[in-house]
């Protein structure tokens, strides 16, 4: 995704449980960063079998 | 210099015992090796490698894509004659089979060629039996002269010839010669080839050397799977390939692994090879050599072919007829062996594209032959 920062003050401050909401945002940001660093798969025009190459022999 | 002393220093029973003695540790060592030896190849074709098949397939796919890209070459056989003076126990054209014999004239060859051109073919494999009176070197020369203007690459699977004959045919447009030893087991070879010139085991064994000395562009090797223990026989094919690649390094090589199929008057295979074992062999050949082309014919069924094009195979035939005149002139004549994959060349090309592979109809041109010389 590549965002440099997120502005979340109001969203946390006005939440029912600000501490829990802050933690939820933290996890969301970490999840996003982790996915970004793991690099998305290249887009493909067609489905590619991820099952083993020799499964057809079973 | 010839393959014969190398062949003779590898007695059949020793080779067989060494393959069957391989362990899981040998297979793991072979898989981890950056460059594999013939001893690693023994491990990879051994029964001990069976549990490692998926890993072999992954590696084989990687190496094939690295060297050949996402491509599969298409070719088609053109049977010119079913006349044959040999008795081969497994073949529909064998002298002792009472079938109508036919040899195509130049006009008939052109009629057949027109069908193949219409399908898009540029690579054609000319096939004949072994009958010197009718399909000797003069006939082969005439066939090359007739067909050369119409195709980019001509291969031949005919009787083994002398070096001078090859030297005569290469300038006429002969690019590739396939000559399968059938079996490297000498006694069994005698049993399956009791009569005719083909019964000379050593003349056949020396053929790749004669081709190499004649400077052929590409040659194809293999054994007929089903005559003898396939692991041992295929080790000899690998040993032969290894020697040839080092000796005639300017020549390209391909390997085939035809499994014996029903044919008129034929005996049952002595050894049956399962699909799983054939995949093991294909992967083992690829892991031994990055460069060698691996070819699969329409003897194999559609499901099997559709899967193994991802595992190491680099060339496929499609739409094949195995009878002379089968495409246009005499569609009903008796075929050499039954085919299992009857799909059209267009259907095979579409199947390849669906799998993200590029069907290649032409990767050579006559002008390149002139330049290479
Ligand atoms: S395998 Fe070849 S040599 Fe043997 S009978 Fe058939 S066509 Fe003739």
TrEMBL record, chain B:
One function term, GO molecular function aspect: catalytic activity
InterPro entries hit by this protein: Aldolase_TIM, BATS_dom, rSAM, rSAM_sf, ThiH, ThiH/NoCL/HydG-like
Cofactor: [4Fe-4S] cluster
GO BP annotations, alphabetical order: thiamine biosynthetic process
Keywords: 4Fe-4S, Iron, Iron-sulfur, Metal-binding, S-adenosyl-L-methionine
Protein name (Swiss-Prot/TrEMBL): Thiamine biosynthesis protein ThiH
Pfam families, sorted: BATS, Radical_SAM
Organism field: Hymenobacter coccineus
Matches recorded under PANTHER family: 2-IMINOACETATE SYNTHASE (PTHR43583:SF1)
Gene3D superfamilies: Aldolase class I
Residue span(s) of domain Radical SAM core: 70-299
